[in-house]
């Protein structure tokens, strides 16, 4: 894998995927230093836009400033829901994600990734509601999902069949899963993808890395995906 250099806001001159992590825990200087030591300097860090009790710490302005000072881009995740069914629910979840992003000062053109876990019920109406609502905002629609197990694949393909705008969704695939690695040992780009046309630009290839005080998952992002982070 090509070295990711010094990070920053531009992907100019970079070849190959970018390496990053995501965490439910807030990024402190101690946590960050441990990740750099144990895994390598991440080019991006996935963090949740809002606090969900018992699940995730919400991203803070001080965290944003800290990560940006290190040249690390932020991958914004929205997880304020526990099932992904129904048009109106998809619209409502999108509005909540947009409001949270605006409150933090997330710039226009950034992708907001809805966290659709493999255990969630998901249907095409929710996907349409979420994606269409985000498309009407200053942001870009992203969905974290498992395209192999569970009902996301069939729901996404049904949504795409009904509405060609769905192809603008940036998918963050959490399969295949060769396992957590350091930056220098990251696998070649090989995510699982839906069975219909899809834009998969981010891949979570390892989960629950435990080398630091809080867990991290390890990811790769294509330059096209990385350019849509904050």
TrEMBL record:
Residue ranges crossing the lipid bilayer per the database entry: none
Gene3D superfamilies: Glycosidases
Ranges for domain Rv2525c-like glycoside hydrolase-like: 44-192
Entry-linked InterPro entries: GH, Rv2525c-like_Glyco_Hydro-like
Name of this chain's protein: Rv2525c-like glycoside hydrolase-like domain-containing protein
Source organism of the structure: Alicyclobacillus ferrooxydans
């Amino acid at each position: 894998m090509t070295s990711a250099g010094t990070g920053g806001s531009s992907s100019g001159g970079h070849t190959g995927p970018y390496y990053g992590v995501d965490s439910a825990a807030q990024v402190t200087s101690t946590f960050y230093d441990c990740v750099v030591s144990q895994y390598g300097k991440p080019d991006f860090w996935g963090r949740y836009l809002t606090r969900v009790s018992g699940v995730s710490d919400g991203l803070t302005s001080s965290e944003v400033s800290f990560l940006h000072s290190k040249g690390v881009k932020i991958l914004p995740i929205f997880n304020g829901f526990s099932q992904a069914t129904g048009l109106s629910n998809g619209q409502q979840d999108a509005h909540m994600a947009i409001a949270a992003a605006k409150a933090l000062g997330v710039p226009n053109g950034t992708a907001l990734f809805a966290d659709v876990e493999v255990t969630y019920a998901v249907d095409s109406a929710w996907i349409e509601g979420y994606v269409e609502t985000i498309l009407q905002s200053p942001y870009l629609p992203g969905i974290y999902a498992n395209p192999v197990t569970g009902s996301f694949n069939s729901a996404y393909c049904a949504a795409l069949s009904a509405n060609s705008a769905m192809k603008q969704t940036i998918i963050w695939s959490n399969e295949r899963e060769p396992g957590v690695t350091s930056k220098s040992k990251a696998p070649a780009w090989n995510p699982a993808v839906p069975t219909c046309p899809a834009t998969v630009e981010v891949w979570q290839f390892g989960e629950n890395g435990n080398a630091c005080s809080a867990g991290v998952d390890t990811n790769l992002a294509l330059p096209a995906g990385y350019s849509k982070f904050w």
